[in-house]
Amino acid sequence: MTIEFRDLKRQYQTYKSEIDQAIADVLKSGTFIGGEPVKVLEKELADYVGVKHCITCANGTDALTLVLLAWGIGEGDAVFVPDFTFFATAEVVAYAKATPIFIEVDERTFNMDPQKLENAIKEVISEGKLNPKVIIPVDLFGLPANYLEIEQIGLKYELLVLEDGAQGFGGHINGKRACSFGHAATTSFFPAKPLGCYGDGGAIFTNDDELAELLNSLKVHGKGKDKYDNVRIGMNSRLDTIQAAILRVKLKAFIEHEVEDVNKIASIYNRELNGIVETPYIPEGYYSSYAQYTVKLHNKEEREKLQNFLEALEIPTIVYYSKKISEQTVFINKMKEYETDNLTDRVLSLPMHPYLKDKDLHEILKNIQLMLK
Length: 373
Ligand SMILES: *Cc1c(COP(=O)(O)O)cnc(C)c1O
Hints:
By secondary structure, this protein is of the alpha/beta class. It contains 11 helices and 12 strands.
């Protein structure tokens, strides 16, 4: 058996009868958009996260776009995003015609650095060209961003905070769950995310009644009271009924054992790799859902050597992310000098999922130790 980076097949085999039944029930019902499974799932997700409203939609990128649309973000607005994240976080800002401002991350947590955020806000204000409007912190690799400080900064400068919890679902800070921070939060159910479906899916979380109502309209073509009375320009962005039914089964497994299981695996990785590579740093009071288990090597050469060595043994690893957002071709600022960045050269994500067998974990560890000791 080969080692999978994220083993979705083994998860399916474990819950096959329940998942097959859930899909069959939808097929029998004849309702493929909306319906009971979507309604019930939204309630279960909101309860788990600990917020009033959950609005499901077609994917995590739409979830972010819908919130920016609801807040009326557009040309002339500045939106602060981390410079080290999946592209979508910044893409949605440019798509809304606003200007993304890239904030460097704290290399220990991989998350937006609050001090650098505040400096950037001050700079935008003093330049006077853009209106600072929104901060989008990302819970990278499953670890919640530093909301304690970022929410304070938001208050101080009267900015809205939108948590991009696409990778963070299941984590928490002192018991307050990911996707409950800021004015609104989003997540993704892309198959490889901590809670994934069997296609695309996403959700928005908020305690704001008015925002929730607006989002429910925007995701269905700006519908009014009646679906065929359109009161604003919106989108078509819904979670399929089949995906909702699958997610209900998967959410149960996620709550019952999956988040704990990845944390157990992380603690074994940490113990065995300590002193060999830089293992993930989880601040006091924080809990990660380990969307990725990402270590840091000393340099690019060492990373390449390890990655090639493991690849030859059919042990998959992935570099998240090899380029910062500000270095993406579409965003590149030709005026700026780019140094070879340390972080993007050093990161390497190892196989991580709740169904990783002890035997496979030890195989991975043995070979990393062999290569680097
Ligand atoms: C995956 C991801 C998204 C986008 O989610 P999709 O469902 O793929 O559209 C947004 N932000 C982050 C940080 C992500 O990892």
